[in-house]
Amino acid sequence: MLLPSPPGGLLLCLILTNTLILKNIMSKLVVPIRGMHCKSCEILVEENIKEIPGVQSVHVSLKHASATINYKGGTPTKEQLTAAVQNAGYEIGIQGKAPWFSRDANDYFRLASAGAVLLVLYFLAKSVGLFDIAVDSGNGSVWIVLLVGLVAGFSSCMALIGGLVLGISARHSELHPEATPVQKFRPHLFFNAGRIGGYV
Fold first, then answer.
1. What angle do CA 186, 37, 156 make, to 5 degrees?
2. Using CB atoms within 10 A of its CB, is residue 67 exposed (0-12), middle (13-18) or buried (19+)?
């Protein structure tokens, strides 16, 4: 037996009410993220995912290597999530254990190329007398700054690296109060030389 249909206006009202109720229900989605290594990484991923339409809130966890996304309406598509995470410089997926040695011959070629460039820069710097500059820091802090600069060439955590450079520069100034402003600037020069070497 067929029931009589409600008047057209009432049926439309029921459909609209159900649609509004469904749109106001918040859903949760957990997405694995790989490649993060600090709090800055979490912030970058969160900011990019929040730009996806319908996303209400995002919590990214470095510890759990994931993003918990609360959204209303339609589920964010895989393409939207992948684009947002990749724009932040990371990837969607579970972090696997890295092998001890790469199987990609290009990795070794790039490593050898970088070593050759560093060797050329070393001999060039030595020939112009850059290493003859007296740096009597007692603890080799200028060379540490160069190493930190090399690491900064590969790292996206510039807040951390910048803090290290400022700390080492301050220590260098304490150890050498007689140094001229140009000599006190030396750690920054070594840091940026390391960054340039790191980019190469």
1. 40
2. buried
**Between 117 and 4, whose confidence is greater?**
117
Q: Label residue 5 by pLDDT band (50, 70, 90).
A: very low
Q: Cβ neighbours of residue 155 under 8 Å, at least 6 residues apart?
A: 161
DSSP H helix total and E strand total for the chain:
8, 4
Which pLDDT score, from 0 to 100, does residue 50 have? 92
Domain spans of the chain? 21-92, 129-199
Q: Buried (b) or exposed (e) across 181-190, using 16+ Cβ within 10 A?
A: eeeeebbbeb
Assign domain 21-92 one CATH number from 3.30.70.100, 1.10.357.20, 3.10.20.90, 3.30.1360.70.
3.30.70.100
Could you read off the pLDDT of 58-91 as tens digits, one per residue? Answer: 999 988 989 999 998 888 889 999 999 999 888 8
Distance between CA atoms of residues 196 and 153, nearest Å: 7
